[in-house]
Structures are given as C-alpha cells and as structure tokens.
Amino acid sequence: MADLKHYVIRGGVKGHERLKLLSRVMHPSTAAVFDQAGIAAGMKCLDIGCGSGDVTIERFRKVR
C-alpha cells in the first residue's frame, strides 16, 4: 500500500479507512448504478475526484 503519511484526502489515514468502509457498504448500490448507466466492456470512463479509488477499480472491472 502507498505511504499514507502523505495521503491527501481530508482526515489522513482515518479518512482513508472511512472511505474504504463506505465503499464496502455502498458496493451493491454502486454496481447497480453502473449497470443502469450501461457501463460495459470496451467503454472508456474518466473518474474525477475518485477518493480512495475503490469506485474507479470497480468501474475498471466493468469496462475491461
């Protein structure tokens, strides 16, 4: 894992842990939104303000 001493999200390590927890809790809803939006293999997506990157990774799994 990256050196979290320089993590730029507000809250540092605790903020990162909070985002990871939210990602796990919200995963079913996030996956449903991607399905409803029609995100599929072969598409190109841009993630702006990706937080800890968990949603970016999930979207990558959909489009690869």
Unreliable stretches (pLDDT < 50, length at least 5) are none
Basic shape: elongated
The oligomeric status of these chains comes to single chain
Number of strands: 0
Tell me roughly what share of residues is in helical segments. 55-70%
Q: What separation lies between the terminal Cα atoms?
A: 23 Å
- By DSSP (H or I, 4+ residues per run), the number of helices equals 2
Average pLDDT rating: 84
What features would you describe in this structure?
- This protein is mostly helical and 64 residues long.
- Helices cover 56% and strands 0% of the residues.
- The protein has helices at residues 12-37, 54-63.
- Helix 1 runs parallel beside helix 2.
- The longest helix has 26 residues, at 12-37.
- The mean pLDDT is 84.
Quick tags:
about 60 residues; mainly alpha; about 55% helix; about 0% strand; elongated
Question: How would you summarize what this structure contains?
Answer:
It contains two helices and no strands. By secondary structure, it is mainly alpha-helical.
Indicate the topology.
Blueprint: H1 12-37, H2 54-63
Helix pairs in contact: 1-2
